[in-house]
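Hi R.,

Here's the chain you asked about this morning:
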Amino acid sequence: MLLSIVRKTLRDHRKSVLGWGLGLAALTLMQLAVYPSVRSQGARMRDLINSYPSAFKAMFGMEGVDFTTGQGYLSTETFSLLAPLMLIGLGIALGTAAIAGEEERGTLDLLMASPVSRGRVLAGKALGALAALVTVAAGFYLTVLAAASGYDMGVSAGRLAQATGAVLLLAVACGAVALLAGATTGKRGAAIAAGAGFAVVSYFIDSLAEITSAVRPWRVVSIFHQASATGALQGGLGVAGPLATAAFAAACLLAAWYLFARRDLAV
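And here is the predicted structure, written out as tokens:
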């Protein structure tokens, strides 16, 4: 029964997966197509970036990065904003739809009428959402790998895989927060607000920590610091940060399982 729920979840989201995947691939290709022009005007581009305020460079991952190299361009343009924004958006949408979306549409009662526990329903929905996210992330990785090779950006497949894995972890964590809020309240609005709010706060904590000492001690709680895609490109991802992010997502799912099993459903 669990696999049936996973398969149904994937079928329900196949159009979303296709749309988000093609959209992310198209935006990535358009973005990377600019790189040869950036590389050909290296000195001018470096002077331009250096003229930006430190706060601006910190917010967009430009601090200490050579924008004209393939690694620096990918780090700043693709993995600091575009990929996290798109995959986190999809993660939140999938986490919201898992329970709250079904409940508000009045379709959750069909699942509840089956001989399956609430825990299995939630687990199947979560696994289906994860499979959808992994599918889109894999398509994104192959797109970047092909484009980076075509434009001779000099970035290894391993580093790209680590950076993509980091972005995927960010999306999973934010999706887990949305699923937790949806399973607790049954409201799509609450789930979206929780997932998006968590992502925004985490992003700003990590960014502001670069420019103000008052925020720096709190950086450890930001998933953008723990699973840094730009850090993965620059020097490797490490183990502790990704494990902490995965543990946080797992804790959210366990909390969702516990609370969903004990809540009165609006079905």
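One quick note: Residues 2-260 form one domain.

Cheers,
M.
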